[in-house]
Each structure stands twice: as structure tokens, then as C-alpha cells.
Write a structure and sequence with these properties.
Keywords: Membrane, Transmembrane, Transmembrane helix. InterPro entries: DUF639 (IPR006927). The chain is α+β, with helices and mostly antiparallel strands. It folds into three domains: about 250 residues, no CATH class; about 110 residues, Roll (PH-domain like), CATH 2.30.29.30; about 210 residues, no CATH class. Helix content is about 50%, strand content about 10%. The chain contains 21 helices and 14 strands. The strands form four sheets. Strands 3, 4, 5, 6, 7, 8, 9 and 10 form an eight-stranded antiparallel β-sheet that branches. A two-stranded antiparallel ribbon has the order 1-2. A hairpin with a 2-residue loop joins strand 5 and strand 6. Helix 1 crosses helix 3 and helix 16 packs antiparallel against helix 19.
Length: about 625
């Protein structure tokens, strides 16, 4: 089916694949088959014939099959990803299907599918047009380097590079290995500056604010930073409304960065590296096609970029592990094929769909298809009823993503605008702790001698009776009992909204001053602190029952350890754990443990917050 370079441009291919999905979606419905032998004695079309279609298809039957009202579901669409990487990828198949069916209630119609394939074909042709072009020659691309996208060539959609206080327009080119920026000179472009994304130089790519003379005014830029650069570089994508261009370029640059991180982490061989880069390349083409055809910019958890998605999803490392296992099988089979003669057993075939697709499309040299006379890249057979480890890892990760998305939604709701509002929320959240600290300071300063004396006597008595070790267990048990009580109450009534008296309104001059860089950074820190405190409040008040149960269990276990283990032994264990986390034997496990803690934390929803109107007290609510 996919052995011809122009198969994506064949309308019969589009109709046939959709008809196959219809059959998979509703088998045995009594519909007429799409491919039907002609009643005449005409022979089938030869796939190598000049100007003829790849398939022998009756147009009338096609119209019946893909007529109005016909649609397919996710399971049927997912089967295409196994055999045709140009259409979909196993890792992002769910998000791609959701994007295509966002306006049709989870059912894919032929008109949308056809438009999507046309857009993909257009993107493939545009990218293939860069091969051997003046742009490719001027950049002096290495072997195997593919131009993925170019920005800054249209006057209405410029790209500005900011370094320090200076800014300059130019042309930005992304390949599967690097970023190239060519400053706009007099009638031509200057020599390109290369930002190698394949290097291990602690590279960071993130959204950032930019503006004239280094001012942080417009949220339309991508920041690139690495140890090889003295100052970070900002690429601004100006547009009148929103920042969709920036979001698109941020996503595809991160995809290239993440795939090279994956290659270095698992030390992939050449054939494995080619497959990983091919998967990233095709996924970027998918994203480009969606954006061009449907004006879609999927959020993080709905991304159609495989490696980008694995970095964002909970348990995304399991997806990368499963992908690596698949590539290990690919490498092992390639070694076997180089040593022994191929047999007719299809179980010995190498499954490398993405690389095969790029070879057929003309992006990779034909030498990749045959090495030493042996086919190293073949189209895999679809195994009906069998689920691969990669699909299982993707399903498990998607199951966990729902709670994360819900938690992120609550986080977005409680983020307040303005330093004053965020400071008011933090001050109210920390009110009990602030009062306790004030009391301890009061006792330490002996402003009330009677209270200070009583406090010291109690401390001495506790130390003399050796009861100090029970102080923290008592506190943890008290908190655990309080959380159990709050969890019981939450079954009877919902968690109360956290109410905060807002600060006085500020005039225009004060608001402009708050836009300065230092204050904006402070605002971000306080905002992050508020989110953390509100999540703790949600746990404490059993706003997230599953998280509350785990915290209760941890507190009880911690209380037991502190209560029954000698203090010196406990401190020894803590010090040993702290200073051995980065040793080679524990490094991988420590990284996984920190990742699990982070993933668990982001799943916790933040407690709701409400800013009261000025002059209205909490008692009046």
C-alpha cells in the first residue's frame, strides 16, 4: 500500500483506508466491500503503471462506503498507525484522534479525514521541496539532516532574534539536528548561526517575555539557553493576537531537543537513532498538518508530538522505556539479518515503519533501505488482537493524565493576577504559622517573663523525662487524626472555599511599576508558593481523597519510625540517604523516585480560593 512515494496524494488510498476503518469499526454490518472485481474482463491496475492509481477501486462503491453519515471510532483509526506512520503514530494516536474529532463527538468523518491527509501530503511536499534547495545549500546541512520548518520568510510573519539589548530580524530554520538563524542583511541573509540541539550542553527551551531594549512586555518568544552560550537567545514571533506561532515553534523545537535527549540517554545505535529521529520528524509534520488544516494548537497533555508528550504525561518515562525496548528488538533483528540469510518466516522481519516512510518519501537515501543486500526496513504486519508493550505503556499513561489535567485546571483557577492579590492569599494561608512564629519570638525575647519562664520549664522537664522524641510523633498523629476527621466531614459537605480579603486597588502608575522584571519574578515565586500551599490545604481538608489517604499513611509510618527508632540511628539513615542519592548504584532509582513524587504532586488539585469584594468581611459571606 505504501510503497509508492505519492501514495498520500492518491485519492483511492484515502478512500480505501477509510473504508478499511469502517470495516474494522463495525464488522459484519452487511456493507459492500470497497475493492470489488469488475464484472468486465479488465485486469487489475499494475502498481508500477504510468499515471495509474495504486489501487483498483470502483468510484461508485467508494461513494457508497464513505457517504454522508459514515464515521469511525478510535480503535479503528488506531489500527492505521501500525501500518502507516505517515498518518498517525502509536504514541500520539489518542490525541490526534481527539483533535480530528473535537467537533464531531468522538467520531471521525471522511471529509475531516480526507482534509487531514491532504494537509499531510502538502506538508510532506513542502518539506521535500527543501531538499537540494538554495536554503539547504546555504545552511550546509549534514547527511541525514532534514529541514522541518522555516519561519521569517513572509514579511507579515517575521522572526526577531534578541540577544541582550539588541534585536534583529531574520530567517529561522529548524532541522532534525539544529536551529539555524540567518540575520537579514542588505538584500540577502548573513551567515547562519547554528544552535546544535543534539549536543549534551544542558540546553533549555521555554516560553519567555520579550520587548524592545530587553523589556519583558510581550509573551511571544522562545528562549534558548545552553552552557555553550554566554547569554540566552530569544526568538520572538510577533503577531497581532495571541501567541500561537510561538507555541508551535516552542513545541517542535522541544520535540527535536527531547528526541536527542532520548538518543543520548539510551545510547542508541545508528539504526535505532534513525528510527527515533524519523518518529520525531513525522510527528512534527503531523502537528504542522493539523495546524495548517484545522488551526489547532494542542495543549501539553493533548500534544501530537511523541517525545514532547512523553515528557509531559505522568509515567511518560515508561513510554520511553517501551519505545527503547522496541528499538532494541529492531537492533537485534538487524544484527541477525546481517549475519544470516533471510528466511520466509515473517516473525524475523524488522519493524521500522517511520524510517521506511521517510525512505519511501525521499527524505532519506535509498541506501538506508538496503545494507549489504539485506532489507533492514520493512513494513510490519498488523497482528490482530495483540497489544504491544508500547501501546500498554501509552494506555497506562493516558489513564493517569485525566487526574493531572483536572488538577492543572484547579491550579489555573487559583492563580491570581497581581503581586498584591497573591501576597494577600499567601499571607492568609500562612496566618497560623505566622502567629506561631510570633509567639515563639515573643517567648524568646522575654517580653512576657512569666510566659517565657513557663515555656523554658516545660522544655527542661520534657528533656529530663526524655519525652522530646514523642513531640514530633504527637504532632504527626494529631495532623493525621485531623485529616481523617476532615476527610469524614468532606463526605458530608464539600471543602469550603478559602476566602481572602483583597488588597486595596492600585492606580495606573503603581500597576506599571509592578511590570518590572524583579517584581514579575517575585510574583511568579509567590504564585508558585500559593499553589503549593493550596495543594497542601486540599490534602489537609481531604479535597483530594486519594492523596489524603497516602499522606495519612506516610505520616503514620513516619511517626512510627521516629517513635521507635533511636534518634542517632534515624539521623544516620537520613544522612546516608541524603548523601548517597547520586551515587551510580542509586542514581537511576533516585531519579525515578523524584519523578514519581513530582507526578504525584501535580495530580493534587489546589483548594479553591475566592477574593472577597472590598469592605466585605469573611463573616458576611
Amino acid at each position: 500500500m505504501i510503497k509508492r512515494p505519492d501514495h498520500m496524494d492518491d485519492k483511492d488510498f484515502c478512500r480505501l483506508t477509510f473504508d478499511m476503518m469502517l470495516a474494522w469499526d463495525a464488522p459484519g454490518t452487511g456493507t459492500e466491500p470497497l475493492l470489488k472485481e469488475s464484472s468486465s474482463s479488465s485486469s487489475p491496475r499494475d502498481e508500477d503503471g504510468d499515471g495509474e492509481s495504486l489501487f483498483s477501486i470502483n468510484s461508485t462503491n467508494v461513494a457508497v462506503q464513505v457517504g454522508e453519515g459514515k464515521s469511525v471510532g478510535l480503535e479503528a483509526f488506531a489500527r492505521i498507525a501500525r501500518s502507516c506512520a505517515a498518518i498517525a503514530d502509536l504514541i500520539t494516536i489518542h490525541n490526534l484522534f481527539d483533535a480530528l474529532t473535537s467537533s464531531s463527538g468522538g467520531r471521525l468523518h471522511f471529509i475531516v479525514y480526507e482534509k487531514y491527509l491532504k494537509s499531510i501530503n502538502k506538508v510532506f511536499k513542502s518539506a521535500k521541496g527543501h531538499i537540494g534547495s538554495p536554503l539547504s545549500s546555504s545552511l550546509k546541512l549534514a547527511n541525514g539532516e532534514i529541514i522541518l520548518d522555516v519561519a521569517g520568510v513572509i514579511p507579515t510573519q517575521p522572526v526577531l532574534q534578541h540577544i541582550g539589548m539588541s534585536a534583529w530580524p531574520g530567517r529561522l530554520t529548524l532541522t532534525n539536528f539544529a536551529l539555524y538563524f540567518e540575520s537579514l542583511g542588505v538584500g540577502s541573509y548573513d551567515k547562519a548561526v547554528v544552535y546544535d540541539l543534539s549536543m549534551d550542553s544542558k540546553q533549555i527551551v521555554r516560553p519567555e517575555l520579550t520587548g524592545p531594549l530587553g523589556a519583558r512586555l510581550f509573551d511571544k518568544a522562545v528562549m534558548y539557553k545552553s552552557t555553550s552560550l554566554a547569554d540566552p537567545v530569544y526568538f520572538e514571533f510577533p503577531e497581532l493576537k495571541g501567541h500561537s506561532r510561538r507555541d508551535y515553534w516552542l513545541a517542535i523545537v522541544q520535540e527535536v531537543l527531547y528526541v536527542h535527549r532520548f538518543i543520548r540517554k539510551y545510547e542508541l545505535s545508528e539504526i535505532q537513532r534513525d528510527e527515533a529521529l524519523s518518529k520525531a520528524t513525522i510527528s512534527i509534520f503531523h502537528y504542522h498538518a493539523l495546524r495548517e488544516a484545522f488551526r489547532i494548537n494542542p495543549p501539553d497533555f493533548k500534544s501530537v508530538l511523541g517525545f514532547n508528550l512523553a515528557e509531559k504525561l505522568p509515567k511518560g518515562d515508561m513510554i520511553l522505556d517501551a519505545l527503547y525496548n522496541h528499538l532494541e528488538l529492531l537492533h537485534a533483528r538487524s544484527q541477525t539479518h546481517n549475519c544470516i540469510e533471510l528466511k520466509d518466516d515473517t516473525n524475523t522481519h524488522i519493524l521500522s515503519v517511520s524510517s521506511y516512510t521517510l525512505v519511501i518519501m525521499g527524505f532519506m537515501p535509498l541506501e538506508k533501505l538496503e545494507r549489504n543486500g539485506v532489507n533492514n526496513f520493512m513494513v510490519p504486519l498488523i497482528t490482530i488482537g495483540e497489544t504491544t508493550s508500547l501501546e500498554l505503556a501509552v494506555k497506562e499513561s493516558y489513564c493517569c493524565s485525566g487526574r493531572v489535567e483536572a488538577a492543572f485546571a484547579t491550579v489555573d483557577q487559583v492563580k491570581m493576577e497581581g503581586l498584591g492579590a497573591n501576597f494577600a492569599v499567601m499571607q492568609e494561608l500562612l496566618h497560623p504559622i505566622i502567629e506561631l512564629i510570633k509567639l515563639l519570638v515573643l517567648l524568646a525575647e522575654w517580653e512576657d517573663p512569666l510566659k517565657s519562664l513557663a515555656f523554658i520549664v516545660i522544655l527542661i522537664y520534657l528533656a529530663y523525662r526524655d519525652w522530646i522524641k514523642y513531640m514530633f510523633p504527637s504532632i504527626f498523629l494529631y495532623i493525621a487524626v485531623l485529616m481523617l476527621w476532615n476527610k469524614y466531614r468532606s463526605k458530608l459537605q464539600t471543602v469550603k472555599v478559602f476566602q481572602v480579603n483583597p488588597p486595596p486597588s492600585k492606580n495606573a502608575v503603581e500597576q506599571l511599576l509592578m511590570l518590572q522584571e524583579g517584581i514579575s519574578q517575585l510574583e511568579a515565586y509567590i504564585q508558585t508558593g500559593n499553589v503549593a500551599l493550596l495543594k497542601l490545604r486540599s490534602i489537609l481538608l481531604a479535597g483530594a481523597p486519594q492523596a489524603t489517604d497516602r499522606v495519612i499513611l506516610v505520616l503514620i509510618l513516619t511517626a512510627s519510625a521516629i517513635a521507635f527508632l533511636p534518634l542517632k540511628h534515624l539521623l544516620t539513615l537520613i544522612l546516608m540517604d541524603t548523601f548517597t542519592q547520586e551515587m551510580p548504584l542509586r542514581k537511576k532509582r533516585s531519579e525515578k523516585f523524584r519523578r514519581r513524587i513530582k507526578e504525584w504532586w501535580v495530580q493534587i488539585p489546589a483548594a479553591p480560593v475566592q477574593l472577597l469584594k472590598p469592605g466585605r468581611s469573611k463573616q458576611q459571606k
